[in-house]
Structure formats: C-alpha cells, structure tokens
Amino acid sequence: MAQELSEKDLLRMEVEQLQKEVKNSRAPISQTGKEIKDYVEAQAGNDPLLKGIPEDKNPFREKGTCMIS
Fold it and tell me: Where along the chain is composition biased (Basic and acidic residues) (predicted)?
C-alpha cells in the first residue's frame, strides 16, 4: 500500500499520526514504574507461575502410566 502513495501522502499520514500521538497523556517513568511494581507485587499471590498449581487442579498432570502387556 505504501508503494502506491506519493511521498506527499506518506508525509501527510505521518503528520496526522504524530498529531494523534501528541494528544496522549504522559506520565513520568518514575511514577509509572512504581505503579507497575506495586501492581505486580499485589498480584504475586495469585500468580500460578510463582506459587505453583495445586496437583488436583493441574490440567497437565499425568493421568497415569502407560502399561503395555
């Protein structure tokens, strides 16, 4: 699609995109990083990768052994 557009059209699209992006609200990384850290720490108790899955609720546990007679 970009090959079909002239350079002027491409630049116009870029300017329109930049105008949209400049309207986005921004926060300092120090504040955002703290919020992310607090959220992750608050959710750590519910994270199955950190605390594991109970054996009776694990859908991937081995059901039994294979016996060939």
Answer: 53-69
User: Is residue 14 a contact partner of residue 21, using CB atoms and an 8 Å limit?
Assistant: no
According to DSSP H, which parts of 23-66 are helical? 29-43, 48-51
Backbone angles phi, psi at 57, to 5 degrees: -105, 0
Report the alpha-carbon distance of residue 18 to residue 28 in Å, rounded. 20
What does the angle CA 65 – CA 66 – CA 69 come to, to the nearest 5 degrees?
130
Amino acid present at 21: E
3-state SS class at 21: helix
Residue of 27, 30, 1 whose CA lies nearest to 13: 1
Residue 1 has pLDDT above 60, yes or no: no
